[in-house]
């Protein structure tokens, strides 16, 4: 059985909230005395997502309208056996990949974009602002806002804005406004440019600009594509579908891998399985694959820090490189973030998740291998997970173990061909 598909009726009816099952207490968000960042949250987030952000309820019902939109956007997604890749590697391991690239926007991001747009619409909001790195999140929110008859403003990290022009085109097709961050349209953007006119932009700066925009208009909310608890929650449709699909295949995962930038696709893929692990129903290794260019989990500090550069977000306990960190301008723009989901960070700190940093040339090499065997071009971000999945399969080749490896295929790379072109030409660092 190569491709395991579920029916539309099998889309999960509830999101899974791992906050109910954490092995230790979740570190509360904090604020500075002068910043009052917590007090600003109701001004920039919908009532629905704020309730979910702070909830410890194990399962939260998915609204009917959101489930209908999930169906329209192609859920459930397939789970595929990577038999050709297995044969190429000559490994006894079984490799499966969950195809989140089959959505109209080509990645997992619609799972939370639809939910966040829905709750904002319920509050009577007219526009959402957001940041985006490589463009997958900005594309997803532009489409979700268009579905809900709302406007969308996307502050896109300048280096990615220049590297990936067709991401901008797609956002505009979905009626999104796209600005290269830092911009001259916000006070913080102007401050950054005054200090460094050639600033390449970072997700931290783009978040600051998007929040400032939302704070200045009562008909506008801000929407975040990763990091926060409600975003992790919405993505758990991925893992819940995968549980059903592996059951159909008669398999139990031994290794689960996903890439991490802010943590959303990783959380979505593994959190439902993490519950099984905590309940001692499975014995699985969970690996979070990050870029060596921005090694938040493997080299960052576990401490309280702002989620943005200007300090408009609450203080969050997470692994961080520092909120003013400017990562190198590599091609995995979706993973160039200084911090990490506090939920993912907590599980790493408790030793339940293994972080692993991988080099840029190695991830593109793995992407080429995957494309030539399975026929699908992975996004550079996704290639980090594929690289680690291949490493685990090759380890099985050495040991003879017949492990089941599950990789979350978070998005396709058909709009990221400049990176592949540079790799094939030998131009990458």
TrEMBL record:
<keyword id="KW-0028">Amino-acid biosynthesis</keyword>
<feature type="domain" description="Tryptophan synthase beta chain-like PALP">
    <location>
        <begin position="73"/>
        <end position="411"/>
    </location>
</feature>
<keyword id="KW-0456">Lyase</keyword>
<dbReference type="InterPro" id="IPR006654">
    <property type="entry name" value="Trp_synth_beta"/>
</dbReference>
<comment type="similarity">
    <text>Belongs to the TrpB family.</text>
</comment>
<dbReference type="GO" id="GO:0005737">
    <property type="term" value="C:cytoplasm"/>
</dbReference>
<keyword id="KW-0822">Tryptophan biosynthesis</keyword>
<dbReference type="Pfam" id="PF00291">
    <property type="entry name" value="PALP"/>
</dbReference>
<dbReference type="GO" id="GO:0004834">
    <property type="term" value="F:tryptophan synthase activity"/>
</dbReference>
<keyword id="KW-0663">Pyridoxal phosphate</keyword>
<dbReference type="InterPro" id="IPR001926">
    <property type="entry name" value="TrpB-like_PALP"/>
</dbReference>
<dbReference type="InterPro" id="IPR023026">
    <property type="entry name" value="Trp_synth_beta/beta-like"/>
</dbReference>
<dbReference type="GO" id="GO:0052684">
    <property type="term" value="F:L-serine hydro-lyase (adding indole, L-tryptophan-forming) activity"/>
</dbReference>
<dbReference type="GO" id="GO:0030170">
    <property type="term" value="F:pyridoxal phosphate binding"/>
</dbReference>
<keyword id="KW-0057">Aromatic amino acid biosynthesis</keyword>
<dbReference type="InterPro" id="IPR036052">
    <property type="entry name" value="TrpB-like_PALP_sf"/>
</dbReference>
<comment type="pathway">
    <text>Amino-acid biosynthesis; L-tryptophan biosynthesis; L-tryptophan from chorismate: step 5/5.</text>
</comment>
<dbReference type="InterPro" id="IPR006316">
    <property type="entry name" value="Trp_synth_b-like"/>
</dbReference>
<feature type="modified residue" description="N6-(pyridoxal phosphate)lysine">
    <location>
        <position position="109"/>
    </location>
</feature>
<protein>
    <recommendedName>
        <fullName>Tryptophan synthase beta chain</fullName>
        <ecNumber>4.2.1.20</ecNumber>
    </recommendedName>
</protein>
<comment type="subunit">
    <text>Tetramer of two alpha and two beta chains.</text>
</comment>
<comment type="function">
    <text>The beta subunit is responsible for the synthesis of L-tryptophan from indole and L-serine.</text>
</comment>
